[in-house]
């Protein structure tokens, strides 16, 4: 659907006013000169109105509708209009969180068929829009324009950036024997065949491959794939206080990128990952594995917005039915303005959950934003250090995440 409007410029109204004034003067003074001048002005206006181009046809092509933070996409507009006079002014509306890396989203094009291209960079996750497109068809004298606005809007999904981090053995890993048929593609005590190797004196006789022995005359044993899996659940604090700092780099954005990266590593190793987001509401994704579970986590992380005042204790009490016993829990929170942190963590530890708290330091993000002028910084920093010390004494592993440390560093600290 195309919405149309027409408008006239100040130049057109000036031409008309002057021509009308000259016509009145010619009648009042009986002047042929003024009459000819007024007729000339009206002739220009009529001639301008005669050049009316046809309705534009716009086609937009986008290289990708799904990308990660920091990546770029190419956008091309194909515009065609019938007619050979005038000019086309094209303006492509963009979401405020999209940056133009190359080209431009506005330009003047000749009539006929033309293309306009640009490259867009998405520095921040979220669901952004490209469009609608606004086209103004100008007459040759730029006295009036006809504006067309399309309803064609392209939805762009910008997912959180994924850091590879360091793969290693998680200290808080608890393997569960065959909760389902999830094969880790590594040697273990499962039932799926993996490979054959030479026999050693410590191997049980029931693993000897007697058919291979008959063919080769050499004792060989079968190896099988392991069928163990880890359930890990991630808590994300999305309260208002989590937005402290720059819009593109604050505790909430750091937590989201950490969750995306950690989920990629864990699910890639055939583990199951769950997600709980608390802020204005509490959203729960039960632990699951596979590409579909990873896509669900990524889209949930993309849609997170800060707000609300739900505390950790109420979230833990709400989420307890979704937490299997002894399942590792990772909490991502700045730990600020939540008096229930100790009670919430104690509730998890007493149920046997190995607990890791990854805490981006909100006051340090504020300090970087306001160039050190943060009210009561020393007192708030002291309270934070004391809280972290108390949580560690309760048995939680707490990672104090400063702004100068990247996501990869935090992941390596969890693996350590």
Tell me what the structure shows:
The chain is α+β, with helices and mostly antiparallel strands and 416 residues long. It folds into four domains: 6-48, no CATH class; 57-158, Particulate methane monooxygenase, b subunit. Chain: A, domain 1 (Jelly Rolls), CATH 2.60.120; 185-226, no CATH class; 229-415, von Willebrand factor, type A domain (Rossmann fold, 3-Layer(aba) Sandwich). Helix content is 31%, strand content 33%. The protein has helices spanning 10-29, 32-50, 210-216, 251-268, 291-302, 312-319, 341-350, 362-369, 377-393, 407-415, and strands at 2-8, 57-62, 66-68, 72-81, 87-94, 99-103, 106-109, 112-121, 126-138, 144-150, 154-159, 176-177, 187-198, 220-225, 228-229, 231-237, 272-278, 282-288, 329-332, 355-360, 397-401. Strands 1, 3, 5, 7, 9, 10 and 11 form a seven-stranded mixed beta sheet that branches. The longest helix is centred in the N-terminal third of the chain and has 20 residues, at 10-29. It is elongated, with a radius of gyration of 33 Å. The two termini are 57 Å apart. Residues 168-175 and 177-191 have low confidence and may be disordered.
Q: Tell me about the biggest sheet? A: 7 strands, mixed
Instruction: Flag low-confidence runs.
Output: 168-175, 177-191
Spatial separation of the terminal alpha carbons: 57 Å
CATH domain class of the largest domain? Alpha Beta
Percent of residues in beta strands? Answer: 25-35%
Q: What structural category do the secondary elements indicate?
A: alpha+beta
